[in-house]
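Annotated sample (chain length 308).
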Amino acid sequence: MTGGRSVLLLAHTGRPAAVRSARLVHERLSGAGLTVRMLEDEVRELAAVGCELSPVEAVSPEAAAHGVELVMVLGGDGTLLRAAELARPAGAPLLGVNLGHVGFLAEAEREDLGETVRSVVARDYVVEERMTLDVAVFNGGRGDGDPPVRSWALNEATVEKADSRRMLEMVLEVDGRPLSSWGCDGVVCATPTGSTAHAFSAGGPVVWPDVEALMVVPISAHALFARPLVVGPEATVALEVLPDTTPGVLWCDGRRMVELPVGARIEITRADTPVRLARLHRAPFTDRLVAKFGLPVSGWRGRVEHER
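Output written by the structure step:
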């Protein structure tokens, strides 16, 4: 029985492929008896390009993911990160269908869309939890007695210089003790999920998603000790913008921004609330890396059983 089941459908409405995919997903989920929810703005945007979906439950962002079985996302990693903002408070799992480029967070590709919908209808998926980060900015351009600005990240919290002509001078603290200072373009603090995103581009390690850790990756740092660091999940990482330097800016997942004046302090810890991802495939993370990055594996023989 499928009575009472609902799915929140999010689409990158600016992409023709997402519009076509939204029509197909809506048709098949509705045909199987599931209620399809969509954001009010996306319903209007789809209707404006001739894709009127009915029946559909149009909802506001605040209530969008509450009570749904799944949030199905049509787009790239940026669309999935936007969906995470809605799904995380509700504890709803995300299922991404990649319509972008690499799409590392997505579980399925566009050509597998029909089979993906069948798996959703049949509840043929598992859910895994991904570590997220709590981010607090102290003295963020206001009085010393004001409360911190708080945000969170699934992939990474990145501190960047606000003035492209000058380096950002920062000091790193781990568990209450200073570790090193850098003149740099910025610093990426990433989860294992985000290790294949901005941190990877900055020279950080690829970390398997079942590892719980926090990566600290300086960007173009002028210092003797400026290697990527991996600390434990219970560590507290802090970055301070030093005096006599340029202001900075903090980005969480490239979506939520906080300005960082000179003297600002950013504290990053593991969050209590994870993001839940729906998985259709049981393939190991190694296979995902090979497929997404097109890694060369020809000539591999695997384990050879020798005769006794």
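Annotation: The mean pLDDT is 91.
Annotation: The two ends are 55 Å apart (CA to CA).
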